[in-house]
Prior knowledge:
Helix 8 (163-172) links the parallel strand 6 (153-157) and strand 7. The radius of gyration is 25 Å and the shape is elongated. A 7-stranded mixed β-sheet has the order 2-1-3-4-5-6-7. It starts with a helix and ends in a 20-residue tail after the last helix. The chain is built from 14 helices and 7 strands. It is 50% helix and 11% strand. It is of the alpha/beta class. Helix 12 (250-263) runs parallel beside helix 14 and helix 13 (268-284) runs antiparallel to helix 14 (290-301).
Amino acid sequence: MNASVSREALDARDRPARLTVGVVGAGRVGPALAASLQLAGHHPVAVSGVSDASVRRAAALLPDVPLVTPAEVLARAELVLLTVPDDTLPGLVEGLAETGAVRPGQLLVHTSGRYGTQVLDPALRAGALPLALHPAMTFTGSSVDVQRLAGCSFGVTAPEELRLAAEALVIEMGGEPEWIAEESRPLYHAALALGSNHLVTLVAQSMDLLRQAGVGAPDRMLGPLLGAALDNALRSGDAALTGPVARGDAGTVSAHIRELRAHAPQTVAGYLAMARATADRALDHGLLKPESAEALLGVLSDGGAANGTNGPGAPGPGEKR
C-alpha cells in the first residue's frame, strides 16, 4: 500500500471537494450515493451502465456525467463505487484487477451487504484501498433515495488504517457508520433481508387479501396499523407481540388457514411458518401460556387440515359436538 496515498485518503475529510468519483453499475444504489457525495463537495466524473433503466437513472441523478466503460470509470476516478449485484461482484473485481484497470492508491468501495473487504483482495494486491460500505436502506432509483440517506445506518468493514476514511465517507453521505466484522457480514446481511425484503412480501400479500375482502384502500387501512406495529417492535421487541397466535386462539388461527386455503393458497406456507415462529417467541417470552399453546401448535402442525380444528362450528377443548 502506498503510505502517502493512504494518508491522503485518511486526511481527505479535512479537504473538501477532494475526490473524483466514479460509479460502476448504475443500478438503484450507485447513482444515489454518488449524488450524495456530490452534495458533500466531491466530483462525479464517470458512470457505467448497460440497461436503458441504468442510463435513465444516471442521467436523472448525475446529469452531465459521461457514461463510459467500467475500465474508463476506474481510469478517471480516485474513488470508485462498485454497485453491482452481489453475485457479480467477485468476477467484476477479478476482471478489473487482471486487466490492469485498478490503480495504486485508488479507493475502491463496494456496497454489497454480503461481502466485507476480502472480496476486494485482487484489487488490494493491485494497490487499491478497499472499503465495504453497505447502506441499510431500500432504494427506488430516484432522487428520494438521496434524502433517505440522512440518518441511514451503513454496515462498514474496512482495514484498520482506513477506518477513518470509511467513517468520513459515510458521514459525508449523511449516514451513520456501524462496524461489521468481516466474518459477520453474511449474518448481518441475512438479518436485513429477513426484516426488509420479507416485510415487503408480507405487506403486499396482506394488501391483496384485503382487496379480496372488499377493502377499497388497503394501503390506508394498513398504514397506521403497520406503522404502530413496527414502532412497538423496535421499542419493545417480543413484548410487542399481539394477535391470535400470541393469545393462543387456536380456533381463530384455524379459521385463518381455511380462508387462506380457499382464497389465496399460495400464502398458506408463509402464514404457517410465521405463525410457528411467532408462537415459539411468544412461548419463550412468557406471552403465550403452555396450556393455551397446545391446541394452537396442534393446528399449526397439521396446517389447519384437521376438520377446522377449533374453528367456527368446531368444539373447543372439553366440549361435545
